[in-house]
């Protein structure tokens, strides 16, 4: 089977993509005419724009970092719970760099989820 550009398409190319709508066909024709590209390249461009190429959408850096921070915070809370509600900083070093851990601890403290003792211990309840 050949596409309009004369290039041979394999069965994987044919089965991967959903059928095109008449509007998409029209856009492909315009793309071929105005950008002077072959049918395969024009179809690939249109499918990418319509997110129909079957590619995984990459998360943005902000999404990645927010999930990473939430992950550290949940690990910290789980570790405190596992240790019976109190622990020191040395127990948390396994979760990442010290600066990241301190940022997460500051956020959790501002939210009222943890409390810091003057000696540096971390509690889930207010220390006496």
Overview of the structural elements:
- The protein has five helices and three strands.
- With 128 residues, the protein is mainly alpha-helical.
- Strand 2 and strand 3 form a beta hairpin.
- The radius of gyration is 27 Å and the shape is rod-shaped.
- Residues 1-6 have low confidence and may be disordered.
Outline of the structure:
The protein is mainly alpha-helical and 128 residues long. Helix content is 52%, strand content 5%.
Secondary-structure content class: mainly alpha
> How many β-strands, per DSSP?
3
What composes the largest sheet?
3 strands, antiparallel
Helix content: 40-55%
Runs with pLDDT <50, length 5+?
Answer: 1-6
Question: How does the overall form come out from the CA principal axes?
Answer: rod-shaped
What key phrases describe this protein's structure?
mainly alpha; disordered N terminus; 128 residues; 52% helix
SSE topology:
Elements: H1 11-16, H2 22-35, H3 39-49, H4 61-82, E1 86-87, H5 98-110, E2 115-116, E3 122-123
Antiparallel strand pairs: 1-3, 2-3
Helix pairs in contact: 2-3, 4-5
